[in-house]
Amino acid sequence: MQLETNTASYHISFGSGLLQSIxxxxxxxxxxxxxxxIVLSDDKVAPLYGQTVCTSVQTxxxxxKIFVVQHGEQSKSLTVYDQVVGYxxxxxxxxxxxxxxxxxxxxxxxxxxxxxxxxxxxxxxQVPTTILAHDSSVGGKVAINHPLGKNTIGAFYQPKAVIYxxxxxxxxxxxxxxxxxxxxxxxxxxxxxxxxxxxxxxxxKIDQLNQATLADMLYRSCLVKANIVSQDxxxxxxxxxxxxxxxxxxxxxxxxxxxxxxxxxxxxxxMVTAAIIGYQKxxxxxxxxxxxxxxxxFLGLPMRLPKEVTYDKILQYIQYDKKNVGGxxxxxxxxxxxxxxxxxGITKEEVLDALYYQLxxxxxxTKG
Length: 368
Description:
13 helices; two-stranded antiparallel ribbon; alpha/beta; globular; Rossmann fold; 2 domains
């Protein structure tokens, strides 16, 4: 799959055994080979796949090093960013160096932000190892977190390539599988109703980590993301639709502390909230709200806020959402499945009403 934007063109590869061919990929991508390569990974992924990637890369760039961060959202911080940049400076990485992000969305976001800012920008390659990262690795959004807001320090910076080896999904915990599927659901709700139908029909194979089905799912979902990003690289219009469910989702992550709930799980809850807000405002038809709820129910995704998260906390953190304009809350709402729209000026009272409604839905589903 090829993604074309105003500033970049790059290939997104899906398949088995791709980690062993990353060295050859680098040769194909660059007219002049990088002087040095840093493989940025985390302490869960590096022991599984770090050596394989480094061995492949070292066949073409002998000066290849791996830098391992702690897994989880806490690594998307200014502190860890400073550690990575300091390591690169101490080891004489220059403007002709290359960053490889080997891991999930946290590693991809951190590595991409390092690449975007180190010496005013050096190339990087995304090598995602989770289903969730199929969303974050495509499109060039890179960022780290601030204690008051998720992804508030970042840039738009496209990778040179995205290499998706589905073999890495064999080691994925169930919670991370569900987290990734939630982002696939999001793509279906905002753009592709047929993707929702396909997901429901093939969920058993996906849950069993059938490689061919996983690769097909990732391709279908990335096709949605690539289509949107190619039209709106810097989120001046339709790319904002990809934030469906994220306003509440990010607030949940902030309220719980980064890393204490998988991103996609928080977004799944946020999609239900957004559908309720739309319904209560007369924007989202009842059958659309019912479908959002039924999809979450079928896939075993949550319906309500975690018990540890109070409404006050949500209202506190929602005000820091980077999509807000002029102090007004901004939400992506659904006029229909596949027909999103951005609405500015949603009030805290409307959010609170939706959260109360959402609690009752969750209780009814539990009783049923």
